[in-house]
User: Fold this.
Amino acid sequence: MAIVNRKRRAHSFWLPGESSLIEGVRWLIRLRWLAIAGVMSALVVGIRFIGLPLFWKGILAVVLSLIILNLIYWTILRERFEGRELGTEVLSTATLFAHLQISLDLVLLTLLLYFSGGVFNPFSFFYIFHIIISSVLLERRDSYLQAGWAFLLFILLVYLSTTERFNYYPLYPGLGRVDLNWKQVLILLSAFGTTLFVSAFLSSSIMERLREKEEELARAYEEVVKREKIKSEFARTVAHELRSPMSSIMNFIHAVRLSEKGRLSEKSLEFLERALQRGQGLIDLIRDLLELARLESAEPPRSEELEEVDLIGELELILSVEKTGADAKGVNVYFNHPPVLPRIRYSRAAVQQI
Assistant:
């Protein structure tokens, strides 16, 4: 039996959309409560306001059976499938579970139609609705199996509605059993069977196309994420490699401007000031690139990026770059630290970016 291995995604109350098979089963159970409410409402309106001669005892028995089964389905769903990994065994069981629900729904639909006009009930098209549901939840072959089961049940409904061996429950007042000859029965079955299997073919074909598109979108999304990650890593690496030498250049220019201020011409000082301004703009850009890379990279460093980092050595390297500018301004920079600091295992690039 074919198994649909779909990713777990958000779903609405009404449609399973691109959710997993488990979510589709949950959606089917919720939809069944809506169907129960609809049948009860139609029964009350038909008897009290329209005056239809409905066999309400049989209809209530079907509705009660549907309520009990739906409670059992919900219990099985919570105990057998909630919170479990969607492995092959779980998906296979969920597929059988969905098959069982749809098959029993078709049986109860047949009984419901039998107690409310039989084959002449206009709601016989609900067979097609169940075939569409099976195409949404299951694979193409499974929807064909459900279409075959629905066709057999419809043959049974035709037999119950036309033979004298069973009671007939008319939908409208004064409407008796309609006798059909074998040619009329054959035409009816041919038309209905063709409709069932064509519906199964069309709906399953549409769902297969949607699943293929879903897989293509998933692959495209993974490719975009991969490229974005490469771009972020590249921007982070380039920005980090430019930051230290650019800071050194800025500090040296600043030191020259202060130490040689009395011996340089106004034109030279203006050039140095422009160089400082442009350099500061470049440093700000590098800082923005590092911040952007940090925000886009939400995951921790990979294991191959980890190494033992000497905090004292890294801090001394950073201070040596900044010390020139500080000395030019007459600022003394001291680095007081214990003789030994514990070495940490982390990404060296990440430590230097901080």
Residues 1-19 have pLDDT under 50 and may be disordered. The chain has two domains: 21-179, 225-353. DSSP finds nine helices and two strands in the chain. Residues 182-259 form the longest helix (78 residues).
